[in-house]
Amino acid sequence: MIDSVxxxxxxxxxxxxxxxxxxxxxxxxxxxxxQFANDGMIAIWGKxxxxxxxxxxxxxxxxxxxxxxxxxxxxxxxxxxxxxKDTPANLVVNGKLQTSYFDFTYRAILDEQGxxxxxxxxxxxxxxxxxxxxxxxxxxxxxxxxxxxxAAMVEELAAANEEMAAxxxxxSATNDExxxxxxxxxxxxxxxxxxxxxxxxxVREATTGIIVLNGDNADILIVxxxxxxxxxxxxxxLLHQSLFSIIPEAEPAFRPLIDGVRTSGEPxxxxxxxxxxxxxxxxxxxxxxxxxxxxxxxxxxxxGVMVLCQDVTSxxxxxxxxxxxxxxxxxxxxxxxxxxxxxxFKTQEVITSPRFDEIMGFNAPQKHxxxxxxxxxxxxxxxxxxxxxxxxxxxLHYTARIIHGDEIRWIHAEGTIYYDSQHQPERMLxxxxxxxxxxLQQQQKDDFISIASHELKTPVTSLKAAxxxxxxxxxxPNNAMLPKLIMQARKSVERVGILIEDLLNVGRLxxxxxxxxxxxxxxxxxxxxxxNPISIAxxxxxxxxxxxxLQVEADEHRIDQVVTNLLNNAVKYAPDSELIxxxxxRENGFAKVxxxxxxxxIPEAKLAHLFDRYYRAEPxxxxxxxxGLGLYISSxxxxxxxxxxxxxxxxxxxxxxxxxxxx
Length: 663
Ligand code: ADP
Known about the structure:
Radius of gyration: 76 Å
Bound molecules: adenosine-5'-diphosphate
Structural class: alpha+beta
Shape: rod-shaped
Helix content: 40-55%
Strand content: 25-35%
């Protein structure tokens, strides 16, 4: 069949090509001379038919710098077809440079030797289609993008859905929990209500005073009966009031405490703290043990203070009474100069007061044996008997002697035995007293009684003898003995009278019953009257010298007693001194009377004691009767007058007793 086809001439071929709808051009040299370009191609180029015969770049000068020339020439040289799609080319069309897009093919037409003899250039303007495609692509892209976004949204939605489902689950779980919690809460609330009721009950019934104060005003939130009673009020009068508006008198003492606890948040404890308040005009006072506890209503902040108060008034009063009793006992033992001891029978341990040691002759506490060791050997038996008795009666008392070096002292011990649970003696508490002074006084009294009895017995015996003789001679009144016997009886009675007077005077002096009856008299006249009986007796000569006119105001009878005593003593104790001088003088507003004898005198050591009651300075081997009261009574009489009785004496030369009376 092919053989039957008539070959077309070149002209005819070109004619056919020019009709082709595809733009077509043919280049016939390596420098791309345009042999043929159909209308399609010329329209693409934007030129006219004058391009025929020109080289590619001559025909389309704006193509320079674009890749097409080189691509075409490469196809020429290599013979390899080059195809491209959607390739942009910048061409001047209608006088305007514009970019269009082309699908094109460069194909080398080869001769029999395989040499290129022309290039066939076909092209198709795809600008519109490209734009369309681009638009489609963009649309597609947009759609894709939207799709993607949609997908993402769907995914998100799904996720959200999932989350919602999860949340739903959680919600339903939470709901269950909430229901549970509500039930628990209800139960807790019931429990709280119950517990609060119990708490209120506890607070109300507590024996400890409880009050809860809130805020700066110390408003009373809770208060119980015990507290109300402490301040003499009723609970209903206190609730929701400011505490210090009710008891302002307590504010100065208690406000700082409450504020302190509120600001520091630290509790405060007070023991045996005194308080007082007024209720219905009456003062209530006592002692409290107090606890101030910070009170936190919400969270951490202290909003108030809870105060617990325990009334300890009776305990404190008891303690005070005990302390006072102890103090009284201490003062009493100190005043009585009592030593105290606490002896433990089981351990033999002894606790002593310093005064006890001092009485027993030690300057520091000793072991039990040391105290026992100073008891006089003759009194150990007495002491042992006292202890035996004490174990039966529970009470010890004895008086015994102790030896301090070469001194003997008297002690008096008292003690009470305390027993253990098996009724065995456990301790003995007691006192120790130095009774040496009392003992000596007792001794003196005993001595005095025996002396006084003896002194009274002598004149009474003599009186008795005289009366017996008088009785025998009563039928013979002319017997020469009778006047003598009567004189003896009279003297004995006088002596008894003097002794009794002395004893009465001592009694009166001791009871402060000696009253002075003062009058004015001349001292020398009183002295004369006193001297008379002595002078009459004959043996003694009494000289009265000095101011014989001197007058005093005094109790004449008592001064007579003093002078008589001094003159009698001079006669008694200086029997060999026949002269007694009495001198009256005036000295510094006082009348002075001095009675001097020239007898044996008195040793200096004894002078200070002469005026003591019952004191007698007996010279050895020489007994003179007397009670040791004369000088004591005289000195008291003179003292009561505001004067002084004194003595100067020298052994072997004599003594001068003198007294003064205020003028
Ligand atoms: P009485 O004479 O009863 O013993 P007094 O009180 O009068 O008591 O005297 C106390 C003591 O003073 C006497 O015991 C005596 O020892 C001493 N005395 C008193 N007067 C004299 C004197 N003139 N000379 C020496 N001794 C005297």
